[in-house]
Amino acid sequence: MTAAPARPDDPAPGRRPALPLPRGPLSEALLRALARPPGTPLPDRTDGADPYGDDLHLALHCAYELHYRGFTGVDDAWEWDSGLLRLRAALERDFLTALRDDCGPARPAAEALGELLTEPAGDGDGVPGRLAEHGERWQLREYAAQRSLYHLKEADPHIWVVPRLWGRAKAGMVAVEYDEFGGGRADRIHSALFAALMADLGLETAYGHYTDACPAEMLALTTMMSAFGLHRALRGALVGHFAAVETTSSPASRLLVRALERIGAGPDAVRFYAEHVEADAVHEQVVRREVVGGLLAEEPALDAEVAFGADATAFLEDRLSRRLLAAWRENRTSLVTPLPPERPRPATAPPDPPPPAPGP
Amino acid sequence: VPGDQGAERRRVTPVPHGPMLVEGPVEVVLDDGTRVVSDRFTVALCTCRRSRIYPWCDTSHRRRTPPRRKERDREKDGNT
To answer: Which of A102, A119, A190, A195 could form a disulfide with A154, with the two C-beta atoms 3.0–4.6 Å apart?
Structure first.
């Protein structure tokens, strides 16, 4: 492996994103309050908001982001504000109740995870297969903009679970997370590799830049991760979710490598998914054998929770996938607001010196 | 140091119907003499020979089903 050159990570490391735009009464109330001092009153009920809707998930997203990077102009003390936590609990209750209903009756973890081990013949009918076969550059840019909501904090939501695990589960989880965080090399942190992919596709690489553009379907995937990661009671679901992600990632990444090569993307873009083909084939084994196996050996009562985490992931991924495919089938944007037209790509290397003047 | 060799042993775990897990870092010498290396904490070596990134596993050993089944699953959870 050759030494990697310095990569374009976040252009302003440590800078906090701006608050996003509201999408309904709940997010409006929360965003207004966040601009004011902690203790500013907040609603404590959701009043029947759609449990998968834009308003609820944007509000939940903002409540959780206080635990990651916070926002420009928002007091850090909001993170543990009792009124905010009360609202967050109401949002979580609606979302998780709907999610459990939609995932159906309890079933064994081995059954839920086992289903993920069968691949469709050919490229399948999901988003990666479609992009590999006939994806266009604008669709791959939209896909990356959506996924940036997670990949620019890749593996962060999962690290919360570590103190709630022990023995084989803890050792396996930390080993995989160490790999996600670059194995001790800042230039190999997966979120930095994703920023390089975004730069190659002419996208903004700043953390949180595409929050306003992301539909509820994408927000819900990341709010689910934060909910599972932040609640010790949901540690089984977090582990099941993580196992589902690692199990499905390698074959999907192989298709996304093909999709990027198809549109002539650069090596930085291809590298992110190529790395995931190889890394996640390893992670899948470690997570299923050590993390899931270790957790269930210690806490067999969590078996159905592991299945729930895997099933919830598949359910929300399927919703996002349907949104993307439906929009692209009609040749329209899958985002809330379309991406601005792409600026001409700057050369990645300094321009060639002018050719020598032709000899006489 | 005699008697202390246990600490130096690499653990190798064959996965039934899957790859061979080997503690990294590893150097693999292929039939044609090519050497490939991985610094990962564990590597998954392909044993089915179907991998497109041989000698590393890329999950190509998995069973495949006709796409029919996926569509049926989709109809089952119908609402959009």
So the answer is: A190
Mutate: best of B42, B47, B60, B75, partner A, most A CBs <10 A: B42
A55 DSSP β-pair partners: none
Q: Do B53 and A278 touch (CB under 8 A)?
A: yes
| Residue A303 to residue A299: CA distance in whole angstroms | 8
A5 min Cα distance to partner chain B (Å): 18
B52 with A254: Cβ contact below 8 A = yes
Residue of A nearest to B40 (CA): A179
User: Global pTM?
Assistant: 0.89
**Helical H segments across B12-78, by residue range:** 68-76
Q: What ipTM describes this predicted complex?
A: 0.85
Tell me the pLDDT of chain A averaged across its residues. Answer: 93
Q: Which two tokens stand for residue A22?
A: 């509201």
DSSP A78: G
Mean pLDDT for the stretch of residues A175-182: 97
B22 — contact with chain A (CB < 8 Å)? no
Per-residue pLDDT at A12 exceeds 70: no
- Selected residue of B59, B62, B73 to mutate for chain A interface (largest A Cβ count, 10 A): B59
Of the candidates A102, A281, A318, the beta carbon closest to that of B59 is on A281
Contact B20, B45 (CB under 8 A): yes
Calculate the alpha carbon distances from A261 to A127, A175, A190, A266, A352 in Å.
16, 31, 20, 8, 25
Using the predicted structure, report yes or no on whether residue A354 has a pLDDT greater than 80.
no
Q: Name the nearest CA neighbour of B15 among B59, B52, B53.
A: B59
Strands of chain A, DSSP E: 118-120
Q: Hey, are the CB atoms on B65 and A315 less than 8 Å from each other?
A: no
Mean of the pLDDT values across residues A159-178?
98
The model's confidence at residue A344, banded by pLDDT at 50, 70 and 90, is confident
Provide the token pair at A182.
């670059």
Q: Is A2 on the interface with B (CB under 8 A)?
A: no
Which of A103, A270, A278 is the best substitution to test chain B (most B C-beta atoms within 10 A)?
A: A278
The helix or strand, by DSSP H or E, that contains position A67, with its residue range, turns out to be: none
